[in-house]
Amino acid sequence: MMLHYAQPSKLKTKKIVFEAIYAASDSATLEQLKELSSKRRVIEEFINEKRSITEAIAREISGGLESRYEQDIHKIEQYLPILGNMLFYVDALSTNIRMAQWNAALKIRWSSGLISSSFFNLTGPKFFQIDNLRFELGMTLFLYGEILRERALELLSTDLILSPNFFRQAAGIYHHLAHNVLLPLQPLLPPEKPPEALAEVSNIMSLICLAEAQAAAVRRAEEKGTSPSLLAKLHHGVALFLEEAIGIFSTVVKQHKDISSRLLEFTSSCKSLHELKGQEYVAQSLKASDQIGAAIAVLHSALINARKKIPREESWKSIYQKQIHDASEVLRKFEHENYVVWSQNIPSVDELPLPEGKKIVKVIHYSPKIWERQLIFKTK
After folding, report:
1. Where are the alpha helices (DSSP H) in 289-352?
2. CB atoms within 10 A of CB 59
3. Which InterPro entries match (predicted)?
């Protein structure tokens, strides 16, 4: 029943050769700069879709990992600790003139997966250049979170224990990114920046990942035959996460008018979908307690609301309409049973029970790893 929105992972970047910019004072520092460039190059290749090796070699390099997403996660996890070490030494020399010149010469350029299609030109996506290593760290972490999210979706049909954990890991990365990386960077950002550089966008993505983690957990609960009353609360809990994300979106639009409306449509459509499914379970619970009239009223009201919010995207629309069809079938059966057996009055909307949501998932907090290796530069 989950919708899929992969656009946030559609990032591109331009090449960086660290050893060509920074002057190393010794051979050990030079080798570490080359290693940093090498680790970044493999990320450049997979996000720019320029993979130069076979699948068999990719598996061997990654230690036998079969999934492409697992391989990409491995590549990012090899790069981040070295980048963190580099950032430590660059920060320590932030007042040095030569270091400032080298940082500017890096030309850190990334495109965005979250801007509207009108922002693209005939030669491809627009690249944003922000000459600050924290921007590089932020964009890499954003990509990391999205690849983890894609891996979670990949596992959704086969492993409903592991899949939510990947979503929760992604949520933790976005939470760390928003509060520990992007907030200090905000005053240094130029007016022209990608939405991914805004702390609020990472907060939105963290909430979306938590909602997806709970949706996966609900699917497992459904398979285990959990009671309709609890399933209703869990589905409405998903909607609560998404409602919070939608609330933040209004702030983002004020800061970045070119952000794609598809992110908001995705979030709103997921919220409506889980609200409908939650109300279907509320109706089932009411019927089980011999309140079929109230059950009919709940479903009727939920379907009216759901039909007002059908998404435009075809892949989302088909899932959404199937859920409307399934709920409509339940309503039809309830109405027929009430007509034949119960003859209960149908209460008004004002008399219906308010939906109750229950959140059961939390972020898996991200603790960055840093490879502590001394770097010595020729700054004089």
Report:
1. 292-307, 314-337
2. 17
3. BRO1_dom, BRO1_sf, BROX
Question: What is this structure's pTM?
Answer: 0.94
Q: How far apart are CA 120 and CA 311, in angstroms?
A: 23
Query: What is the rounded CA–CA span in Å between residue 6 and residue 153?
Result: 10
Distance CA 211, CA 216 (A): 9
Contacts for 51 with CB less than 8 Å, ≥ 6 apart = 45, 58
With respect to residue 211, please indicate whether it lies within any of the assigned structural domains.
yes
Residues β-bridged to residue 111: 127
Question: Domain for residue 265, yes or no?
Answer: no
The whole-angstrom separation of Cα 311 and Cα 273 is: 10
CB proximity list for 228: less than 8 A, separation 6 or greater: 281, 282, 284, 285, 288
Could you tell me which of 334, 329, 240 has the C-alpha nearest to residue 284? 334
Helical segments of the chain, H only: 27-47, 55-61, 68-92, 97-105, 133-155, 162-176, 183-185, 199-223, 228-255, 261-288, 292-307, 314-337
Is-contact 115 258, C-beta < 8 A? yes
* Residue of 288, 281, 249 whose CA lies nearest to 356: 281
Predicted local distance difference test score (pLDDT) of residue 258: 87
Q: Which domain holds residue 154?
A: 7-224
The reply to whether 182 falls in a domain is yes
CB burial of 273-282 (b: ≥16 within 10 Å; e: otherwise) equals bbbbbbbbbb
Q: How many domains does the chain have?
A: 1
Is residue 361 assigned to a domain? no
Instruction: Say if residues 166 and 155 touch (Cβ distance below 8 Å).
Output: yes
Residue 208 belongs to domain with CATH number: 1.25.40.280
- How many Cβ atoms from other residues are within 10 Å of residue 359's Cβ? 15
Q: Tell me: the pLDDT tens digits for 6-29? A: 999 999 999 999 999 999 999 999
Contact 198, 252 (CB under 8 A): yes
**How many residues are recorded in the chain?**
380
Q: How far separated are the first and last CA of the chain, in Å rounded?
A: 61
CA distance 88 to 21: 17
Which has the closest alpha carbon to 324: 337, 345, 305, 341?
A: 305
Which residues make beta-bridge pairs with 124?
A: 121
pLDDT of residue 257: 83
Residue with token string 């990391």: 144
Token pair recorded at residue 187: 């005053």
